[in-house]
Amino acid sequence: xxxxxxxxxxxxxxxxxxxxxxxxxxxxxxxxxxxxxxxxxxxxxxxxxxxxxxxxxxxxxxxxxxxxxxxxxxxxxxxxxxxxxxxxxxxxxxxxxxxxxxxxxxxxxxxxxxxxxxxxxxxxxxxxxxxxxxxxxxxxxxxxxxxxxxxxxxxxxxxxxxxxxxxxxxxxxxxxxxxxxxxxxxxxxxxxxxxxxxxxxxxxxxxxxxxxxxxxxxxxxxxxxxxxxxxxxxxxxxxxxxxxxxxxxxxxxxxxxxxxxxxxxxxxxxxxxxxxxxxxxxxxxxxxxxxxxxxxxxxxxxxxxxxxxxxxxxxxxxxxxxxxxxxxxxxxxxxxxxxxxxxxxxxxxxxxxxxxxxxxxxxxxxxxxxxxxxxxxxxxxxxxxxxxxxxxxxxxxxxxxxxxxxxxxxxxxxxxxxxxxxxxxxxxxxxxxxxxxxxxxxxxxxxxxxxxxxxxxxxxxxxxxxxxxxxxxxxxxxxxxxxxxxxxxxxxxxxxxxxxxxxxxxxxxxxxxxxxxxxx
Length: 520
Prior knowledge:
single chain, mainly alpha, 2 domains, 4-stranded mixed sheet
């Protein structure tokens, strides 16, 4: 009793601990680059990007936050809350607001997580298809692409949908590598989640199916069609059944028109072409042309090396550009459909250019086709460096780190601050607020009538929302506060002016009304 068993080797008692430590070290080594990407990105956002707590990046933020707040208040999407977007993003934001009610920062953190999913999925896909250094270069280009930093912090639906799509592409790459049916099924399910977040990623489904079909044809030596077609049919069936099933459950057959008709009607209007010529894809890509040049060189490298997995991002980028070329309006987040896959191709060119620069002192210039391609990568890289002397992310970043930024430090300015202060002042007496600037209502912890959660130019111009409907909702809900400032509503203003008192306005554009019996 109490004696040491000398038959045991020295340190044997610590072997279990050593095993755990070894596994931990192995895990850290395996995921070291994942952790590096996450930590570097979060450090940049939280230490150098003070605008992450800005009052509002886009009016879409207020719309998305208000829809989520209304869901938490018991108002069902589509049946009561008018919405022309799929439901998944709204439910994700609503879940965050359940824990942190009326906190913009909580919702923005959800989008930040989606951004990390996108970056890590992109990294692992390119690592799988080509190599680690090319993957790191691609991730760096995604971060440098126009507005990516902003959209990673904005409560907007585009980036989360693309994050799901990139994860689906990674899982599809895993299928090509390992031929495990689980990867194929998960890829189909995740792209379904992407479409249920925003419909604009649906065009990837036929691209993925064509890729599977081409792979099956090349792989199957005897061209037995059952084996050739099986992966394509399996992926397509899982995607279709899962997506349509959730659409019918979460949206309902009777509400499908809300998701489709406004977008089709907007595409037919001349209003956006005539009044928003800058809302076209070529205009959005003006700042991104060096990325496009790098992507073109990357595409040539893919053709030369015949690493066919990289044809997926090439087909993604080209298809998205061609589809958006015929579409108006194109919003800021939609450019990511082109710039994100283009960045993955550009990463190949960046890696090649760096390799050429490092080896230039060791080899003479080769005038062959391969040598010219290498020279093109160097030229494209210099175009990126010299054209983007102040790239989009860096001009938004503070040069010195700061950890003192608070969500209440909104940078409102005098005008916004006065409007928000007055709305908060009357909030205890307010049950409903009608406004086309819903971020104000959300920050004042007020709800808008569900029918008016979405005040957008698309809804107004397509006739899905009329002045008569707005007046009818005001008459029904009798809101204590009405704030108008984004659009012109002469009939609504006349109706409101007769029943409300104007307590604050700016340049006869933004006006805040209080019902006459409130605050007396």
